[in-house]
Task: inverse folding
């Protein structure tokens, strides 16, 4: 790969955050923090495959409920220590990994779906165990506030999807460049396949936290399919040139 070539991994972890404006939450919220210990299976360690399958099914259930227009939100409020700064960064990353929407500093909103609720309660417990004061509340909103929150969630997902599309475009461009230069080597296959696998994992995570169906979701799925097809073509060409088989 050229020195100016594409590298998907170099950009991960630097996604810009959607800058939300503080929103109103109506009605008196209910503190769910005391329910953390009562959630069955939060600390149980199940097999990796079964856990992944359950989480995937739960995430799909969450998205289906969200698309059906059901209301209800979880609000995570936490107060990380000033030092060390790693505690604040860790909390921010975990919230973003779960798809939370920050409405102000250290206050994040999540749709109150079954799998999401379990994950947020687990996160709150983890925060407390590491010395970060945190609380989880259940809240409901009026129709205007709900529409605003849904729009912000979609914008947050679309922002991530744009980053993914940029990576896909870079990978396709790199494959085109290597094809023009005739760099049909096994090393190029491994390097580009690694980048594609990385993007595919990123897409899977992005879909899992896209609760309301971002407008760019379909475009991302088409683009990643295009990348996979183009990668297979490149691999076939490398194989043909090295073995003489058609």
Result:
């Amino acid at each position: 790969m050229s020195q100016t070539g594409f590298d998907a991994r170099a950009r991960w972890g630097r996604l810009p955050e959607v800058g939300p404006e503080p929103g109103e939450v109506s009605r008196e919220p209910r503190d769910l923090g005391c329910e953390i210990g009562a959630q069955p299976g939060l600390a149980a360690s199940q097999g990796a495959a079964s856990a992944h399958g359950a989480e995937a099914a739960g995430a799909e259930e969450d998205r289906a409920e969200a698309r059906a227009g059901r209301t209800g939100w979880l609000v995570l409020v936490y107060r990380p220590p000033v030092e060390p700064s790693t505690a604040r960064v860790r909390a921010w990353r975990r919230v973003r990994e779960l798809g939370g929407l920050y409405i102000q500093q250290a206050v994040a909103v999540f749709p109150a779906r079954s799998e999401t609720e379990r994950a947020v309660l687990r996160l709150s417990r983890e925060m407390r165990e590491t010395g970060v004061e945190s609380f989880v509340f259940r809240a409901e909103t009026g129709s205007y506030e709900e529409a605003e929150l849904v729009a912000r969630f979609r914008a947050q997902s679309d922002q991530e999807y744009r980053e993914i599309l940029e990576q896909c475009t870079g990978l396709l461009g790199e494959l085109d460049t290597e094809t023009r230069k005739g760099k049909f080597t096994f090393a190029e296959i491994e390097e580009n396949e690694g980048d594609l696998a990385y993007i595919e994992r990123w897409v899977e995570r992005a879909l899992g936290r896209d609760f309301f169906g971002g407008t760019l979701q379909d475009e991302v799925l088409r683009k990643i399919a295009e990348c996979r097809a183009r990668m297979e073509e490149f691999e076939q060409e490398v194989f043909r040139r090295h073995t003489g088989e058609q």
User: Anything to note?
Assistant: The CA atoms of residues 71 and 140 lie 7 Å apart. The chain has two domains: 26-140, 154-243. The beta strands are 26-31, 73-79, 101-104, 107-111, 133-140.
